[in-house]
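testing teh design pipeline on a random one, pls ignore if ur not involved
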């Protein structure tokens, strides 16, 4: 237990950060937001997407409000053994995009757009050295990608 119960490869980082009073936390600021927005502009233009950005001190959220991409049309029907009810999704047309699994959920234009959105969301010197198995989190910032929201669903435009 000389490493406080941490995996040996994480102990030096943890000890240095906490005992030298250098606390590294996820952080979002206006400069990073600007880098992300600038990286996103050509993507939004290419796919005809209109969206909004919202920041907290540790994260940025990009919400796609409307665009020419039909996410539900490009959604894979069977995900993890469950059938997706596309008609029900179309009624409310809002959901969060899981950046770790979107490849398994979308095809076609929606997948191509999400590839580019994900790259743009990481444009502000993003890194992630987290190791959840040992409860060690070290990332530049967190990000979320939404298609519509509960009060204003995504609108497919021609």
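output:
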């Amino acid at each position: 237990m000389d490493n406080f119960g941490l995996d040996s490869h994480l102990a030096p980082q943890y000890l240095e950060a906490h005992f030298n009073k250098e606390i590294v936390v996820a952080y979002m600021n206006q400069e990073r937001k600007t880098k992300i927005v600038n990286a996103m502009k050509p993507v939004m233009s290419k796919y005809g997407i209109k969206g909004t950005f919202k920041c907290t001190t540790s994260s940025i959220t990009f919400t796609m409000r409307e665009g020419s991409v039909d996410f539900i049309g490009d959604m894979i029907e069977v995900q993890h053994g469950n059938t997706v009810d596309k008609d029900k999704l179309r009624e409310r047309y809002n959901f969060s995009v899981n950046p770790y699994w979107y490849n398994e959920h979308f095809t076609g234009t929606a997948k191509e757009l999400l590839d580019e959105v994900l790259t743009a969301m990481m444009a502000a010197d993003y890194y992630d050295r987290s190791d959840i198995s040992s409860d060690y989190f070290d990332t530049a910032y967190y990000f979320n990608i939404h298609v519509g929201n509960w009060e204003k669903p995504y609108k497919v435009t021609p």
